[in-house]
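Lab notebook, bench 4. The sequencing result for the construct came back, and we need a structural model before the next group meeting so we can plan mutations. Quick request posted to the team channel:

Model the 3D structure of this chain.
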Amino acid sequence: MPKLNTMSKTDNPSVMLFGAPFTGKTKLAGALAEHFNLLLIDMEAGHDVLFTLPEEWQSRIEVIELKDTSSYPIAIETCLKMVKGPVSICIAHGKVSCPLCKRAEVTECKSVEQDQHDLIHLKYFSDVDLNNLPDDTIVIFDSATQLTASAIANIVKKEEDMYKLQLDDWGGLGKLMDIFFSHIQNASYKRIVISHVKQAEQEDKKVLLSPVAGSQNFSSNVARFFDHVVYLERKNKKHMAASSTTFNTRVQCGSRTDVALEDMDEATLLAIFKPEAVKNVPVSKKVAVTSSSQVARSKKTQELLARLKKSKGG
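Done. Here's the predicted structure in token form:
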């Protein structure tokens, strides 16, 4: 059985990146293409923002579009299959092993030489094996918000448009989200899940900002599946990122390695994925917590010292 001091930190961190729309989430993740190859699972047609990146960086970003809608909720089906094992996703519909595209591929292959079959396959399908990606690749799921909407649309697809989710439906949603995020938690590759922000009222009536990921209860606890939870907001006309538990008690963010993106002049996820490429990666300051019993013992000790000092004449 290995001892902790003989083990090393993971080289494949997981990040939840969340915030309001237009706070720079996709672009912050996309900027990692300066040093990594990226596989972007785009469920929101949001990759257009990455055309502002240098062309060399763009060449390192592979995009798989899942054109998810309420009437064609393909994202949850494809993503669940993708995180479980190797898949072939059709480019036209975003469906795993799509029969329509498979028939079109077979038909076209009949009229060409054998050595051209692989090229024709790539015309119709993207082959993905997440668990066997090179170490220099980061997978980005954009977004958990759309994945949630896709799961709900699948659950109610046989119901009328005005149908409201019942208790069993919420249970089904929780099951689908748990399957996806548990695979993300234990994955062997570098990964980022992007989401939007959700407001949830706590027992003390205070509002907590957390990522959208299924139901309100599931969203409030989704941080447990990640090594780092990064919050983005617009502040003083700038995009700002935060990742330490001490940033704001109203925001669900944190880092298992204590990276504090809020203390950087310009936030970069390289501080998490490639810290050696960043000068002076800031870490969150530890806040000492003193228990009531410790306080009591401290007071008692001080009183004894004072009495001892008095008995000795000062």
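The chain is about 30% helix and 20% strand.
Will bring this to the meeting.
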